[in-house]
Design goal:
Elements lengths: L2 H21 L1 H12 L2 H15 L8 H13 L5 H30 L10 H13 L1 H8 L5 H11 L4 H26 L3 H5 L1 H25 L10
């Protein structure tokens, strides 16, 4: 077997392992708790922080992970107050990191006043949009896989003020973590939910994603929203 074939097989195995982890996150977390105990809290903090704080990691299982953690709390395998506080902190600090990266690198990447890489007018419009509507975008994006990873980065690039971003960051983090964790706590041990958990996980991934794609498609069809338009 040549090196290229080995590399392809290795990547396929990695993708397969990731998909298996996402779809059977309940089994993997229970095994981790059984084998490593309280180290599970460090693992969960890291996953939520990386998903929200590193713009190249939007594929990590945030929603389904929170639901399963809530379910494990509901049956006494984990602490609900500790999980809630720790994962809200991870979500908020992750967004802050992502925002900081966007705010720091955005102006440096687009350093020219006007060029093919940077449209000054578009930048100003993006900044104005995030100042006016960015708050609800930051909160709503928490519940959208992929979008929640990019929203704080774009807010930073658009130079949304940190004070305003932080208010909505904390609000969105509490609603997202608290809402899904609590839903898992109360409903995760229901027999029907346990039986169809894999389908529920798929729905939590696909439904918000389809809504995002539909919204983008509608926006592109609006008059005057041509992709190639220049300011």
């Amino acid at each position: 077997m040549d090196e290229e074939s080995a590399a392809i097989i290795s990547r396929m195995e990695l993708i397969g392992s990731l998909i298996d982890f996402i779809l059977h996150v309940d089994v993997h977390l229970q095994n981790f708790v059984a084998n490593y105990g309280n180290w599970v809290y460090a693992l969960l903090f890291l996953i939520i922080f990386v998903e929200t704080g590193v713009v190249v990691m939007p594929f990590l299982p945030g929603d389904s992970l929170l639901f399963v953690v809530g379910a494990l709390c509901g049956v006494g395998l984990m602490s609900y107050p500790l999980s809630l506080g720790l994962l809200v902190a991870a979500a908020v600090s992750g967004n802050q990191s992502n925002y900081t990266i966007g705010r720091f690198f955005g102006p440096k990447v687009f350093q020219w006043e006007q060029s093919r890489f940077f449209n000054k007018r578009a930048f100003n419009q993006a900044h104005a949009f995030y100042e006016k509507y960015g708050g609800i975008t930051i909160v709503a994006a928490r519940f959208m896989p992929f979008l929640r990873t990019f929203a704080p980065f774009v807010a930073g690039v658009a130079q949304m003020t940190r004070s305003k971003f932080s208010v909505y960051d904390v609000t969105g983090g509490v609603l997202w973590v608290g809402g899904i964790l609590t839903a898992g706590y109360f409903f995760g041990s229901v027999p029907w939910v346990k039986l169809h958990l894999d389908k529920i996980i798929w729905a939590m991934i696909l439904v918000p994603g389809l809504l995002v794609l539909f919204g983008a498609w509608k926006a592109r069809r609006k008059p005057g929203s041509s992709v190639g338009a220049r300011g």
